[in-house]
Amino acid sequence: MTFVYVLLAVAVIFIYFFRKDIKEKIIPNKEKNYTIDDRFNSDRKDREKEIDRLLSKMGENGVKDLSREDQKRLDELSKK
Fold first, then answer.
1. Dist. CA 80–CA 70, nearest whole Å
2. Average predicted confidence (pLDDT) for the chain
3. Residue 62, Ramachandran bin (φ over 0: left; ψ between -120 and 50: alpha; else beta)
4. 32 falls in which pLDDT band (50, 70, 90)?
5. Residue 47 near residue 76 (C-beta atoms within 8 A)
6. What is d(CA 41, CA 39) in angstroms, rounded to the nearest whole number?
7. Using an 8 Å Cβ cutoff, are 74 and 51 in contact?
8. Whole-prediction pTM
9. Is 3 left (phi over 0), alpha (psi -120 to 50) or beta?
10. Taking 90 as the threshold, does the pLDDT of residue 45 lie above it?
11. How far apart (Å, rounded) are the C-alpha atoms in residues 32 and 30?
12. How far apart are CA 67 and CA 10, in angstroms?
C-alpha cells in the first residue's frame, strides 16, 4: 500500500514539474505555432474584413457617405 502512495507522490511531482510541457501537448498555443505566412494571411484577412465593412457603409454618394476617419482608414488600408 505504501508503494502505491509513493508511486502516486512521484506522479504528482512529475506532473507538477512538467505541467507546462504537458499542457502544451494537450492544448497547443496557436500564437506560438504561427509561421510568418500564417500571420501575414491572418493580417490580410483582417484588413479585407475591415475594407469590406467600410465599403458596405458607402451608399449612393460613394466615398462622400463615409466619415473623415473612415475615409482616412480606407486610404491607409488600400495602400497596404
1. 16
2. 83
3. left
4. low
5. no
6. 5
7. yes
8. 0.53
9. alpha
10. yes
11. 5
12. 64
